[in-house]
Design a protein that fits this description.
The structure is a single chain. 31% of the residues lie in helices and 18% in strands. It contains eleven helices and 13 strands. Strand 6 and strand 7 (147-155) form a beta hairpin. It is globular.
Amino acid sequence: GRPEWELDSSVKFCPLCTIHFNIINRKHHCRKCGKVFCGECCSLRCSLPSSYGYEERERVCSPCFIEIVGDRSRQDTVITPASKHGVSAETRLVSAAHKAMLWKMGVHEGSVFDRSLSDIMDSSNKGVIPIEQVQDLVVAHHEHDNENLRVRVYTPSISVSSSRNALRGAEGALPALVWCHTGGFATKTVESASVDGLCRLLSNQVPCVVVAVDYRLAPEHKFPVAVNDCYQATKWTFENARNIQIDPSRIAIGGDGAGGNLAAATCLMARDKGGPALVKQVLIYPWLDLHVYGPDAEPYMSRSEFADGYMLSRGHYAWFMHAYVPPPPLVPAEEPYACPVKAARLDGLPPAHIITAGLDPFRDEGELYVKRLREQGVRVKHTRYSNSTHGFFGSGIDENNEAIMEVALSLSA
């Protein structure tokens, strides 16, 4: 239960960083262990188990944060407590700005789409997370459109060398994560600051080599171009693993949003084509049904509940869907590589770690996928972050830190 403590005036410095307490560097109690730390070492907020009796996310020390999230990452299903205060003011501001960006980009019917505005409005923190090496490599050249399929390879920083040594396999190779980025199949690339920053963060946190796929974008390239690119990049990663310090027996795939769709579809394609053998799939609030239903025929309550919700509305994701997937009969409504949640067979897939967001229109299809995978014998760990919206992963707001740590611990297990 909740620790009881009294302020101990004999504690003169933080036990983690050894900084001395004074009027500027004040003492803070960890809400889990009750010990005293400085503000920097006790700055992370997370949801504690219900036995502690807290109604909101509380500040905890770094070791307790890792312990709490580590316990969560090992449980089959976790739903974090919903805040009684609702969505944070910061989330409301970010959501409004994101919707304005989508409007200016032309993500609405009858408009001219301008992808360049995405990077202009994206965060400007590109490159602030130190990384040992970043390589842009060509996987294939497509003659018919004179475009290269690229991957951006991130090698974790030497500052995490102790963790790296523990994770190194034969011949000093590291585990790897093939990453399919978000962006509605249309807006972002590996050059986008938010994509680059998240890949750097994941590479260092696990640590692992991250292979970010620069798949070709809609509306210029329709389904199945993006998923074919992701599959081809995954095969290339296995075939070239030793050249980029990767252990081919420890390669996972992951993605957020539209990238979660591509990661799930790549796993289906790898099974159907007889390989490569991925060890895990990490799906972050995945968009798994690329079909827009009418208000009276919507099978997912979360889509109706958040039809005009946070970060994107029904109109936005309808535009993205039509930009990527041609309508039936060109692409059947049950096409598994477009709508993995509708796949008839889900057996033979790698174990899954799935994160859903409580305030996301795609929450229910992600959780239906959890149910269907388990029914067909696939091992699944699932966490719903109840207070978060679509796009929170890597955003620095809400339950972002908890989700990042959970994924890192899952991949390093």
